[in-house]
Amino acid sequence: MNDIYILSTLFFVVATIYSIAGFGGGSSYIALLILFSVNYTVAPTIALSCNLIVVTVGTIRFIRNKNVLWRLILPFISSSILFSYIGGLQSISKFSFQLILALCLFAASLKMLLFKKSAVDLKYNTSPPILGSLFIGAVLGFVSGLVGIGGGIFLAPILYMLRWGSPKNIASSASVFIFVNSIAGLIGHYHKFNGFIDYKPFLPLLIAVGLGGFIGNHLTLKKISPRQIELVTAILVLIVSVRIFWNLL
Question: How many Cβ atoms sit within 10 Å of the Cβ of residue 145?
Fold first, then answer.
């Protein structure tokens, strides 16, 4: 692939920006891979692998800095792992799913952007209902495995809207959620295609997202305020929703 270094630069930028909000950037990686004419059957595996690299850096840093609220995230990931694997085994029918997804993300982004107060100024619940968390985790895990992304782009808006955690709790939860779902989704894709792809042509992409993820997570923990994290999340969700609408036209 002649454009691998251009693509690597774009992956570095995506990883840096998305990791600020605790995301991996899987949806944008897939879009860029398709734009650069990478085979669509390969794109989900590359995107999930990049997700895993980015959020591994982030998850380690979040845990070391004690930002992960385990009682908040454990119910979500305990149900999402199996369903992400199951989703990874499925074939995808895209149009109806993408339309619903785009509408939901668009509404979530507007709600976050139009908050009169930062979520840090509002009361929030760090011990949400167990059954509700298990159900949301299962649904998001299945969707994540199905489309080849980590699921943090879905989880974060829900947590913000329901006020289940502070902005930094949500950023760290999204990172852990993406980590486990990326592993489960990769295993599902492995079994679907009876093996992994040849990663050698894509090594520059993996290195680029590793560097970007480290820089982005450093900014999250040291330089970015809770409200800024919230706004970055909203903007990223809005961009994803608009891009999906555009693809449907």
Answer: 32
- For residue 221, what are the CA distances in angstroms to 168, 191, 224? 9, 37, 7
pTM of this structure? 0.77
Q: How many CA atoms lie within 13 A of 155 on its CB side?
A: 42
- Write the pLDDT tens digit of every residue in 95-127: 776 776 677 778 777 776 775 554 444 566 667
Identify the CA nearest to 44 among candidates 57, 58, 31, 59: 31
- The mean pLDDT value for 36-42 works out to 77
Helical H runs in the chain?
Answer: 4-20, 26-35, 43-64, 70-89, 95-113, 130-147, 152-162, 167-193, 203-222, 226-248
pLDDT given for residue 119 in this prediction:
47
Q: Whose CA is closest to 141, among 88, 62, 104, 69? A: 88
Contacts of 94 (CB under 8 A, 6+ apart): none
| Interacting residues of 210 by C-beta distance below 8 A, sequence separation 6+ | 15, 53, 54, 57
Give the three-class secondary structure for 213: helix
**Single-letter residue type at 23:** F
